Amino acid sequence: MLDRRPLEIFLAIAEERSFVRAADRLGLAQPVVSRQLQRLEGNLGARLFHRGSRSKVTLTRAGELFHDEARDALAGLLRAEQLGRNVARGATGPLRIGYVFSGAMTALLSDMVRGLRTAFPDLEIEPRLIETPAQLRELAEGRIDVAIVRPRPSWPRGAAVLARHHEPMLLGLGTTHPLARHDSIAIGDLVPECFLTPQFDVEDELAETVRRLLRKVGARPRIRATGDFITAAALAAAGEGVILAPASLAHLVIDGLTFRPISGHAERLELAVVGRPELPAAQREAIIAALSASRTDCRV
Q1: pTM as predicted
Q2: Among 279, 295, 278, 277, which Cα is nearest to 287's?
Q3: pLDDT tens profile 135-155
Q4: 3-class secondary-structure state, position 47
Q5: Number of separate helices (H) and strands (E) present in the chain
Q6: Residue 83, number of CB atoms within 10 A of its CB
Q7: Angle 30-44/4-16 helices, nearest 10 degrees?
């Protein structure tokens, strides 16, 4: 099996046409260069150079044939070494990021990707829109590396919370809804409303937040489950109900949809950025640095 050093020596001699100059170029003693070349020729079973004098060295026919292969082999070895180092420090990918819809709307995802790209220009980053329960399964199974999720009482074994993001909530409703005439909405005015609430594999935190909101006025909410925030927003715009939504959803432009604050409601929604146990330290640090500098309300 060929090693990197003999190939470097062979190519240096071929280019310099001199053992002495090749040794100087590589920072080696000339006897070391000679021994390494002899060992290479022994392994190949062929002489690679005509040795007329120390000042004149030329390739044999075997050396000429070997030259291009040696150059390509050395380049491949160098690439493999660099790849191995990049993998070890997290500079190459893929880095698989799961995120919920709000992770994109709050700019958590874009801030994270921007920071990772600055730190690792060659990193392959693969974001995927996945709901929280599925993300946690994939994180536990090693199919994603970082998750942007709604909080849960517990996390997959060994997973670490890298940052937490908080944002206020707004009420989303149709522009023709009678409550849309008000600058802010009283909780008591929401009692008769139907709340369009995205729910997924398990009971979603947002549905429980709606219950806590109406409990303040001694009422139980009517909740209609939807598949996602986009569906809920479209239905609200059509007058089918209202949404208790993260403020970032107001960045979504849907004709006929508007947002209002709720008077006396200070509760905030949380997102957590969670990394798998095997996430390289350099990637972990880059994510934390990016989110620390984020313009969003993010705490690391």
Answers
A1: 0.67
A2: 279
A3: 999 999 999 999 999 888 889
A4: coil
A5: 10, 12
A6: 13
A7: 110
